[in-house]
Amino acid sequence: TGLRGKIETKNNQSTIQQLTFQYGANDVAITATVDNLAYLLFNLENQITATGTFNAKQLFTNDFVPDTLSTALIQDRISNLSFDFDIKSIVQKHRDTLISQEILFAFKNLSAKLDKLPDLKSVTTTGKLYETSKGLTLSLESFHAVLPQGTADITGDLYIPSRRLWQLDAHVKLNKFPWTYVRELTAEIKDNQEPKAKNLPVEDMDLITAELDVYSSMITYPYDITRLEIKNCNLSYQLPNSKLIAVEKFDLSLENLL
């Protein structure tokens, strides 16, 4: 509801000026420049380039689920979400038959506040989305996240061979990252427990600094990690009011964790 904005097209380039709309209690505003938008709308061509900004006063995670009989695994409200984006689709055809399609993306200056989970101070990521023999593939060339406490960097691939099966193959770096956040997120997804550590003082958190290669296979619903492999791991773990625990170059393989 409340859809309003202005779109101008010139020389095959469309300018979207402050397109705003509401979906339930969700409030969204988009400003963008899009190449080939008219061809996409009227000729059903798939190749476009879009650059712009996205803002939302508030979004509810439960509204991300299109099935009205289902609920989101993570229940939270996102406020003051904003980011810059650059998206390009690349289509390969042979005699008017679609052979392959890739979506290249870059998201910058992403920040948001959450009611229950930790805020996102800054997120920047680049990568592509495409089909492979392993299914729908999200390939991260870079992912850098800054939280109120700690940072995380990830490169690698997320494979989605079926609707509820996800497989991750990635290289991960964590710097003074609260493992408390991970435990609470897992507890909310698996047991529907309310997160409580958002405002916990950093001296009361478990902090982890690590660099590792990780492979995991998980079922999204009902949530279950069926396989976890960690290789080439260097890790230091700081417990509250305790000595630092450090290990170097260890490997770990687990199955049916939950």
Largest sheet: 13 strands, antiparallel
Low-confidence stretches: none
- Characterize the overall form: globular
The overall strand count is 13
Order of helices and strands: EEEHEEEEEEEHEEE
Instruction: Count the DSSP helices.
Output: 2
Measured between the Cα atoms of the first and last residue, the distance is: 41 Å
Radius of gyration from CA coordinates: 21 Å
The computed structural class is mainly beta
- Approximately how much beta-strand content do the residues carry? over 45%
Mean pLDDT: 85
Side by side, the strands of the main sheet go 1-2-3-4-5-6-7-8-9-10-11-12-13
Query: What percent of the residues sit in helical stretches (DSSP H or I)?
Result: under 10%
Keywords:
single chain; 258 residues; 13-stranded antiparallel β-sheet; 2 helices; globular
What does this structure look like?
The chain is mainly β. Helices cover 8% and strands 65% of the residues. The protein contains two helices and 13 strands. The chain has helices at residues 37-43, 179-191, and strands at residues 4-10, 13-23, 26-35, 49-60, 77-94, 97-114, 120-132, 135-146, 151-162, 165-178, 207-219, 224-238, 244-255. A 13-stranded antiparallel beta sheet has the order 1-2-3-4-5-6-7-8-9-10-11-12-13.
